[in-house]
């Protein structure tokens, strides 16, 4: 028993020392990897790393092997806890080595020059070391729960407008006979970019787009408000030196789970009776108001 305990302690000490050493060089190595990617793309934009000078190939191999070793060591240290590859940091570390190991798949060989651009995802590793990035991610995470119904409303408006333009404007313009082209037009219009390369010509098509722009702008402003509100709360919390953004992720998730449990009957037959409850509360409040007035 003591021998096993000593071995566990020894392994934990070795892996901790290795992780501490890796933590010192991760950020410089990531920047080095991105710099090499920029140089390689500039001078060899269409060829894969295997076709370029060996320096680029071996440089990537050393970086990928280092991050793979880090992934394995952190996995070992995480033993006995949640499955490391499925944790947020585990996913980030896996994405950092994915562009290298995916290159050994034969089917990917013709696209290696495209796969190498995925090395930029290694910058996500900064999330482990940057409190600022954690705060920003927490802001979007808070906003996500309010954005979900807005995104559903956006999807409904987009689909309705897309098929309406397909039927009304399609006979007048060939471009509007493509649902993908219509989706492109609606996205550009809804985000107020407006390239001007496409527009309806019929009266019906113009009327549909007018309604869409009003609805789209309203939803866009609602999304902007949800994000702004979430970031205001997060930034105010971040001013506290003891505030831990990573723990706040768990707290927010648990609160949302409780809310979802409370609202689980919404949209079911059990929710039908809920329409009567506000009326009773209002009438009771009115009676109290009247008695107070008298």
Architecture overview:
This protein is mainly alpha-helical. The chain folds into two domains: 2-128, Four Helix Bundle (Hemerythrin (Met), subunit A) (Up-down Bundle); 133-265, Helix Hairpins (Orthogonal Bundle), CATH 1.10.287. The mean pLDDT is 84. α1 runs antiparallel to α2 (54-77), α5 (131-168) packs across α6 and α5 (131-168) crosses α8. The protein has nine helices and no strands.
State the secondary-structure class.
mainly alpha
CATH architecture of the largest domain: Orthogonal Bundle
Principal-axis shape equals globular
Question: What can be said about the biggest beta sheet?
Answer: none
Q: Number of helical segments?
A: 9
The gyration radius over C-alpha positions equals 27 Å
Provide the domain count. 2
What's the CATH first level of the largest domain? Mainly Alpha
Q: What percent strand?
A: under 5%
Helix content: 55-70%
Q: The CATH topology of the largest domain is what? A: Helix Hairpins
In terms of per-residue confidence, which ranges show pLDDT below 50 for 5 or more consecutive residues? none
Q: H/E order of the elements?
A: HHHHHHHHH
Total strands: the figure is 0
Distance between the termini: 81 Å
Mean pLDDT: 84
